[in-house]
Amino acid sequence: MPKKNSMPVKERAKAGVESGEEFLPGELCLKLHRIMVRARYMEERMIKMSKSGEGFFWIGGPGEEAFNACLGLQVKKGEGPAYDYLHLHYRNSATMVAMGMELIDGISQMGMTFSDPFSVGRNFPSHFSRKAWNVVPVSSVIEVQFAMAPGTAIVQKRHGGDGVTIVVGGEAGAAEGDFTSCLIWSTRPGNELPVLMITMNNGWGISTAHCSQHSCEYTSERGKAFGIPGEVVDGNDPVASWFAIERALAHCRSERKPFMLDAVVSRLYGHSSSSGAPHSGEADCIAQFEEKMLSAGIIEQGAIDQIHEDAKAEAEAALAQAMKEPKPRIEDIERFTYAPSDVDPVYPKDYTGLP
Ligand SMILES: Cc1ncc(C[n+]2csc(CCOP(=O)(O)OP(=O)(O)O)c2C)c(N)n1
Q1: How wide is the angle at C-alpha 204 spanned by C-alphas 202 and 208, nearest 5°?
Q2: Which atom of ligand 1 is the closest one to the Cα of 201?
Q3: Cα gap 22→6, rounded to integer Å
Q4: Given this model, what pLDDT does residue 175 score?
Q5: Is the Cβ–Cβ distance between 237 and 19 less than 8 Å?
Q6: What is the SS3 assignment for 218?
Q7: Residue 1 domain-assigned?
Q8: Could you tell me the pTM of the whole model?
């Protein structure tokens, strides 16, 4: 396990939030907190949409904001192999918000509008994709991202530079063979790959408890058999998460080899709208962080309230705008599904001509 990488002592004289040995400066705490709150209000508005008929199925990331915001701010964002590739899952909204996604983008996909930038209103919510940021389309079929991740990492290894592949999934999905494929492909002797494998461990796979299925408490324990270093972090703690991600990315960038992170997180609104999305009462990373920021003196309650008000207004305005947007057109139903191919002998140019 890499050495703890805490902020230098002289920096600690400034206001900030401490967690164990680690310290995050106030300015960064405020930035992370705003992202977390904006992502939360977007999701909570989307849950309401699922109940009001402005959208249908909801799935998303309330409870994962602390870790995900830290991840999004540390991504080397851009297009092509010189930058990081992201193979995300459907709970990564705060990562996308941290990278610069507007709340209306998530809300438009929930509202299935033609203006949805990820799928033109044709996919589930939180199924992000953005070519300009190397965000590979999120799949509803869980865990396939772990079989795809070695592909972008191979390209990055051949390309050179320090771009890495970041792949994220839940702990239940890690039971699937795709996860093991990633372990094997990222550790072939002489062909190791710069892949950061992240498991967001909320303790549940829909309604199946983690402890009833897995003999390992954390998926990173499986990395030992493959020589992959790993770390377990409290994903509800933005300070711990920030530095765990920093260490993990530094390893992948410089060694050009894999690393495994388990982030222990809450599932604040259950699995999805299919289970009614009631509040679970689990630990809330935003409330916890606010308590720490208040006692560190880097923010006052009035300012916190204002951030919440602003985020709520932003989500409401995004919904009002999204509801004015046109719906997808029937003629687009098969468009953008597969990339055109000049080399496929059976369906050249465009697979969407399939019967
Ligand atoms: C291949 C596949 N099997 C099953 C499902 C149904 N399914 C959707 S989410 C889910 C649970 C996933 O749990 P976990 O991986 O822990 O992620 P979480 O949703 O808890 O974040 C299941 C079984 C699916 N979408 N794809």
Answers
A1: 170
A2: 16
A3: 5
A4: 96
A5: yes
A6: coil
A7: no
A8: 0.93
